[in-house]
């Protein structure tokens, strides 16, 4: 089955009771048992819920994986993955990543005795150099948030296999429409479903997709034991969003290209970060592992001044200034004070994240209107 057909049909089935074409929202916490232990596979909604089960199956199918697990947020999904580790274990992560992931690693799990190494992963020799006998997890985000670096998933998988470590890919920016990391050797794919997957800026959720049965069992145990599960209403919203994922992503990519090219040619713009450019440092890897280049773009104005970036952000009419990304509407953001404020300034600087960087989530409006907005805001 091709991707668009799967986005609409995979994992879901008409309600056997009524024929309802859309997955019902099973707004229930518990399920009647005929006799103790004699039930229909559902006991309690933290453990299983039919709306969530259909979403999990749909997510697995889109990534060509075997098992999906849904969580109350992207952070809850990441938290569940890190719980696979023990004190003394080491993680190698990209140094350019979502600020909340960095915060969870350094402010929560470092205190539990897990050691994190942050390296520029678009250079795989930096990853190899950080491997020790205690390396248990390699954390890839690609393209990265917010600098749109591209990491070679197949190469990272080779390093992980040699080290005996698990490879995770945070696929939030790409979605399975652009990239299917399990097929490139990743052990786990992780999502903030809040973004492109749900697609309408109306819910917060996360997910993990895996192939391995034992890994699925371990993650399911933590999903239930720790309880970071989503409610059925949110699962329904993501299921509905997934049905248009392919159509939305196609338009995000088309608009992304037009906006990136407009910015690149603008006399007041110093640098545009977008993996679709031939001169992007990892364009060749992006062209190999992605089907298109997405709708996330960052840029810096000439002069590299924070006050100019702030003035531009204040002038946007269509690119609303807001955290998050991946919805149908265009958003703008200032990573240094918003999404990445939890990364110390010195670490941000080392990763190349300037205080004057502007991040855009290019929506699916008409590109002409988006470019007009950029023109009036940049001046
Ligand atoms: O917000 P939540 O659903 O918990 O997902 C966290 C998360 C994980 N991974 C990536 C790559 C992300 O971008 C995010 C959330 N990011 C934003 C809110 C943002 O504006 O970048």
TrEMBL record:
Which superkingdom heads the taxonomic lineage of this protein's source?
Bacteria
Pfam families noted in UniProt = Cys_Met_Meta_PP
Q: What are the protein's GO molecular function terms?
A: cystathionine gamma-lyase activity; cystathionine gamma-synthase activity; pyridoxal phosphate binding
GO CC list: cytoplasm
Concerning InterPro entries, the annotation shows: Cys/Met-Metab_PyrdxlP-dep_enz (IPR000277), Cys_met_metab_PP (IPR054542), PyrdxlP-dep_Trfase (IPR015424), PyrdxlP-dep_Trfase_major (IPR015421), PyrdxlP-dep_Trfase_small (IPR015422)
Protein keywords = Pyridoxal phosphate, Transferase
**What EC number(s) does its UniProt record assign?**
2.5.1.48
Q: Where are the transmembrane segments?
A: none
According to its UniProt entry, the protein's GO biological process terms are:
cysteine biosynthetic process via cystathionine; transsulfuration
**Chain positions found as N6-(pyridoxal phosphate)lysine:** 195
Swiss-Prot/TrEMBL cofactor(s): pyridoxal 5'-phosphate
Supply the CDD domains for this chain: CGS_like
Task: Report the Gene3D superfamilies cross-referenced here.
Answer: Aspartate Aminotransferase, domain 1, Type I PLP-dependent aspartate aminotransferase-like (Major domain)
So what family is this one in?
Answer: Belongs to the trans-sulfuration enzymes family.
Protein name, UniProt field: Cystathionine gamma-synthase
């Amino acid at each position: 089955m091709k991707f668009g057909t799967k986005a609409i049909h995979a994992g879901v089935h008409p309600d056997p009771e009524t024929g309802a074409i859309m997955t019902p929202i099973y707004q229930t916490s518990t399920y009647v048992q005929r006799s103790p232990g004699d039930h229909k596979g559902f006991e309690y909604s933290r453990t299983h819920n039919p709306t969530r089960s259909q979403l999990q199956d749909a997510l697995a199918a889109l990534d060509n994986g075997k098992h999906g697990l849904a969580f109350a947020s992207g952070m809850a999904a990441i938290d569940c993955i890190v719980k696979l580790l023990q004190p003394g274990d080491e993680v190698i992560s990209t140094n350019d990543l979502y600020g909340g992931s960095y915060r969870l690693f350094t402010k929560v799990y470092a205190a539990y005795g897990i050691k994190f190494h942050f390296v520029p992963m678009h250079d795989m020799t930096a990853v190899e150099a950080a491997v020790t006998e205690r390396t248990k997890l390699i954390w890839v985000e690609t393209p990265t948030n917010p600098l749109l670096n591209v990491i070679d998933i197949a190469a990272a998988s080779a390093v992980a296999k040699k080290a005996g470590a698990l490879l995770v890919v945070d696929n939030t920016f790409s979605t399975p429409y652009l990239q299917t990391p399990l097929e490139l050797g990743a052990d786990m794919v992780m999502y903030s479903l809040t973004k492109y997957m749900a697609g309408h800026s109306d819910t917060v959720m996360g997910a993990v997709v895996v192939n391995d049965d034992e890994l699925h069992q371990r993650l399911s145990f933590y999903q239930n034991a720790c309880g970071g599960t989503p409610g059925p209403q949110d699962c329904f919203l993501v299921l509905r969003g997934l049905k248009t994922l392919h159509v939305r992503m196609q338009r995000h990519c088309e608009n992304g290209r037009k906006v990136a090219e407009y910015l690149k040619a603008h006399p007041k713009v110093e640098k545009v970060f977008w993996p679709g450019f031939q001169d992007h440092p990892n364009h060749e890897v992006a062209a190999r592992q992605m089907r298109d280049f997405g709708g996330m773009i960052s840029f810096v104005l000439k002069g590299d001044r924070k006050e100019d970036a702030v003035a531009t952000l204040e002038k946007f009419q269509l690119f609303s200034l807001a955290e998050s990304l991946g919805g149908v509407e265009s958003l703008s953001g200032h990573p240094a004070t918003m999404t990445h404020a939890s990364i110390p300034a010195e670490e941000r600087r080392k990763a190349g994240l300037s205080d004057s960087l502007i991040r855009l989530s290019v929506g699916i409006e008409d590109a002409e209107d988006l470019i007009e907005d950029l023109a009036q805001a940049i001046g």
